[in-house]
Amino acid sequence: MATQSITLTINGESRTAEVEDRLLLVHLIRDNCALTGTHIGCDTTHCGACTVLLDGTAVKSCTVFAVQANGREVTTIEGMEGETLHPLQEGFMEEHGLQCGFCTPGMIMSSKHLLDHNPNPTEDEIRWGISGNLCRCTGYQNIVKAVQHASNKLQETTEEGGE
Amino acid sequence: MIPGSFNYHAPSSLDEAIKLLEDLGEDAKILAGGHSLIPMMKLRLAEPDHLVDINGLSDLDYIREDVGVLCIGAMARESALEKSELIAEKYPILKDTSEVIADPLVRNLATVGGNIAHGDPANDHPATMVALDAEVVVRGPGGLLDSGGRTIAIDDFFRGPLMTALAENEILTEIRVPCPNGKSGAAYKKLERKVGDYAIAGAAAVLNFDGDTCSKAGIALTNVGPTPVRASEAQDALVGTSVSQDDADKAGELAAAASQPVGDHRGSEEYKRAVVKVLTSRAIMKAKERAAGGN
Fold first, then answer.
1. Is B6 near chain A, with CB under 8 Å?
2. Chain center to CA of B99
3. How many CA atoms lie less than 13 Å away from A62 in the CB half-sphere?
4. Vertex B79, ends B73 and B85: CA angle to 5°?
5. DSSP E strands, A70-123
6. What is the pLDDT of residues B225-237, one digit of tens each?
7. Which domain holds residue A109?
8. Domain coordinates of chain B in residue numbers?
């Protein structure tokens, strides 16, 4: 059984683990680190429930090996909240962006990537940005509103910060 | 789903990667974006003993123009192609192609090189690159003077489903696309059942004009044969015409005749031929529009 020792940063915390080469990143996050906010949905690179940020880029963690994250920075849904909820988390709450909630962590991580690169997206751009995330409750309407809420909030904060 | 056991290698240079492939032989597979390979490994359709991860070879991650040619490094991500201003401005057919591959999360890791090297006729870049008359640059073991490099014309690259001209110890390092010359335009059209699916069929069209007359045409098709299909008769039929709607429809019919679709859950053979006809005609008209300065 081939194993490697890897060190990576998850939500700002440095972690070292002895992992099998074939261990998927999502299993490292959920099983080794007990961060179960990241979900496993389809396990076939379709649904996006397992989306995390790898060095700031949204990826499906069921399709990346843990060893590939060696020396890199991972952000999961647990890393979104600071002293208060992140505007995206707040948006999903305010706008009823979730029903069963299973897709929500992935939706939020994909939306984080989107807003980091495009702070003021159009509705089309939001829909495009989350097109790798499936909501089986089909609650897309409110998910889009939740992302718009976060976009507005983040821009207000930026403007206030600039004054 | 858990992939079979393997040994992971992360070389820090191309030479080291090639040496590993040489030493490990047919038991090794290259890991680039991994978005075809890892799902196959999870389904145990692929069980390599060794993975050689080339994600650390950042010198293969580029999109740039050289004299008369666009060079795409093997590790350029689909998302980079999708967002590149150079691509949007001068090679919109590559943007057409990138943005219909899987979904944005997949494209953040998936590479153009992998899309081609995988040799899957359902992938989208192969047909586009055939229509564009691209070349594939590969590197294998070799002495210092002869660095083991060779260039393969795209028509010689795809040998069958998941089979290419790449030897076991070779790595695809670059794709070279001729720069648009004179009045020209190109477009890619794909029909998919839902976002992220493989094509029911796809059609790439590249047109060159001398005044209002088509002087050269490249037409190639996705997922309607064991390899991307070059529709030579459709190309020949366009040359010398003004590419009217009728000419495009006629070329579409010839492309449908050249396609070799197999009926499956994406549709019957007859349906897929009908899709090829329509998509080819639309890709041709879009290419013509772009040649006239449209976008």
1. yes
2. 13
3. 21
4. 80
5. 73-75
6. 999 999 999 999 9
7. 87-162
8. 7-53, 60-178, 183-291
- The domain that holds A94 is classified in CATH as 1.10.150.120
Residues 6 or more apart from B48 whose CB is under 8 A from it?
B6, B27, B28, B29, B41
Q: How confident is the model at residue B141 (pLDDT cuts 50, 70, 90)?
A: confident
Q: What is the mean pLDDT of residues A115-120?
A: 97
| The domain boundary residue, chosen from A22, A50, A79 | A79
Among chain A, residues having any CB pair with chain B shorter than 8 Å are 1-2, 4, 20-22, 24, 43-46, 48, 51, 57-60, 63-65, 67-68, 70, 110, 113, 128-129, 131-133
Instruction: Please count the structural domains in chain A.
Output: 2
Bridge partners of B51? Answer: B8, B29
Note whether A20 and A69 are same-domain residues. Answer: yes
Phi, psi of B275 (to 5 degrees): -65, -45
How far from chain centre, in Å, is Cα A30? 14
**Which ipTM value was assigned to this complex?**
0.95
Task: Please indicate, yes or no, whether residues A62 and A104 belong to a single structural domain of this protein.
Answer: no
Looking at residue A60, which CATH number applies to its domain?
Answer: 3.10.20.30
The second-level CATH assignment, the architecture, of B7-53 is: 2-Layer Sandwich (3.30)
User: How many A×B Cβ pairs under 8 Å?
Assistant: 82
CATH topology of domain B60-178: 3.30.465
Please give the mean pLDDT across all residues of chain A: 96
Nearest by CB: A131 against B38, B108, B195: B195
**Which B-chain residues 50-79 have CB contacts (< 8 A) with chain A?**
51, 53, 55
Gap between the Cα atoms of A117 and A110, Å rounded? 11
Provide the pLDDT confidence category of residue B294 given band limits of 50, 70 and 90.
confident
Out of B5, B41, B196, the one facing A132 most closely (by C-beta) is: B196
Q: Which amino acid is at B107?
A: R
pLDDT band, very low/low/confident/very high, at B144 (cuts 50, 70, 90): very low
Contacts of A48 in chain B (CB under 8 A): 103, 105
Interhelix angle A104-117/A140-162, rounded to 10 degrees, is 40
Partner-chain residue, chosen from B7, B103, B108, that has the shortest CB–CB distance to A21: B7
Exposed, middle or buried: residue B174 (CB in 10 Å: 0-12, 13-18, 19+)? buried
Q: Domain B183-291 in CATH: superfamily? A: CO dehydrogenase flavoprotein, C-terminal domain (3.30.390.50)
